Amino acid sequence: MKQVTVPTLQVEAYASLAGEAAVERICALARPLEGLRVVHVNATAYGGGVVELLYPLVGLMNGLGIPTEWWVLEGTDAFFNVTKTAHNGLQGADVAIDPAMQAIYREVNLANSRFDWDRYDLVIIHDPQPAALASLVGERKAPWIWRCHIDLSTPNPDVWAWIRPYVAAYDGAIFSLAQYVQRDLTLPLIAIIPPSINPLSEKNRDLEPAEVEAVLERFGIDRNRPLITQISRFDPWKDPLGVIDAYRLVKEAIPGVQLLLVGSMATDDPEGWTFYDRTLRRAGEDGDIFVLANLHGVHDREVNAFQRASDVIIQKSLREGFGLTVTEGLWKGRPVVGGETGGIPLQIQDGQNGFLVDSVEACAERTRWLLEHPDEASQMGARGREHVREHFLSTRELEDHLQLMARALKITPPVTPREGLFLAG
Fold it and tell me: What angle do CA 330, 333, 338 make, to 5 degrees?
């Protein structure tokens, strides 16, 4: 495995955004946990929502005096093809994990299990890729927690039946929504922790108007015409093809509208390149559609600028574990049109800070309405920012993790957990 270096962060820097009370609760929770060692393991250090969560979480834990490390498992292309199939199956796709694929999965996890786990007081393993580790390491001295970031509301039964014994080997699990907890999974500790964004990161910090203008100019986007944007991996579950279809319906009424599709190519997502090509083909020769990725020099600052420049942000997912791009868009004060699935309805209050949709036609209709009613759209965006401030900043997720750590290690916390944090344990 390879370690990821994360800058240390100080929670006091978040007081002006999250509030002094939140910072005081976090500091109180951290005191009895100081010096205890934590390790997070996932499948990639670049691209995707898990990475977005781990940078602030690990940095803030270290800033609180709780030594926390982040390691990435090493795997082959064949392994990541298997885990992408498993990911799709757990989100409901009609796929199969045959014996040869199961053997590849177990072999890579076994190779990564040869690691000095005993130096940690708590181990947190993220998503399906390294899920087999807990069952392969032998005797365990610390509690092991499996963190599931994906939409498990309607998993493929055969894929869940295959991975369930690996998950059942853990001492506890974290899910983003209660509806993702499978009825046949009984663990001593189950927590519901929705993801969050780091408001001070390069992707979410405030930008000067000149910075935004410079980014748009660099990529040839016209600031004087309406812009709708979807930020997501190039993945069938994110439905970028459906977004293009919705844009074309909007363009019939508003000819000047532009569409921006931005994605990052993650190392654990081989399918992404294939779907990126499909997206380009669907866009065709329309000069008002911009399809960009990190290979074009689009990184966090550029994404930040694109979101702030957008009139409407779309996240037309068909399945979505949570949807941090929705959170990001709302934090920028923009109304968001999102698929009515997974964690998106937890964020979009339909008609208040955006709209929930379940078809191309509905997506186009709501997007057009927002473009034609800019005052109402601005008010919705302002409500969205406050909704994120209250529920979806890194400080809330950090507080939840400190509560989880105390519960897993049987330490009585000095602060009462928020309602709904624990389903078991």
Answer: 35
Structure-block tokens of residue 328: 């990001």
Confidence category of residue 268, pLDDT binned at 50, 70, 90:
low
In the structure encoding, which two tokens stand for residue 292, read together? Answer: 């960009």
Contact criterion met (CB below 8 Å) for 359 and 377: no
Strand partners, 192: 175
Do 310 and 376 sit in the same domain of this protein?
yes
pLDDT in tens, 15-26: 999 999 999 999
> What's the domain count of the chain?
2
Q: Is the dihedral of CA 300, 303, 309, 311 positive or negative?
A: negative
Same domain, 138 and 280: no
Task: Express each pLDDT in 6-65 by its tens digit.
Answer: 999 999 999 999 999 999 999 999 999 999 999 999 999 987 789 989 999 999 999 999
If we measure between CA atoms, which residue out of 29, 21, 101, 112 comes closest to residue 75? Answer: 112
**pTM over cut 0.90:** yes
Rama region for 47: left / alpha / beta (φ>0; ψ in -120 to 50; rest): left
User: How far, in Å, CA of 25 to CA of 31, rounded?
Assistant: 10
